[in-house]
Amino acid sequence: MKTCNTCQESKQEAEFSKNSKTPDGLQYKCRQCQADYYRQWRKANPHKARERSLESKSRLLERQPDYYKEYSRDYYKKHSATEEGREEYRRRALAWYYRNRAKEKEIE
User: Full-prediction pTM beyond 0.70?
Assistant: First the structure.
């Protein structure tokens, strides 16, 4: 058992992320508190969050250039095997497009 520094609740060690720089090898905040913190940070800093996201994606593409293409292709094949799957894929793609288009307008 370990106590979260943010919510002060005692939780199982599995509810904490790893951190090799701490004495016990675990983060000081539980995963839920850490997720809440980052969610608030991203909301307060949309430009920085977008930059970090793009940097992370570009680093992934530099290290593994074919991974993203293969993953996207495999995901589409797996989820578009049936007409229902194709409809769901199209619906999610359109929802993502409109959601991100609106976010882009907010940022600009």
Answer: no
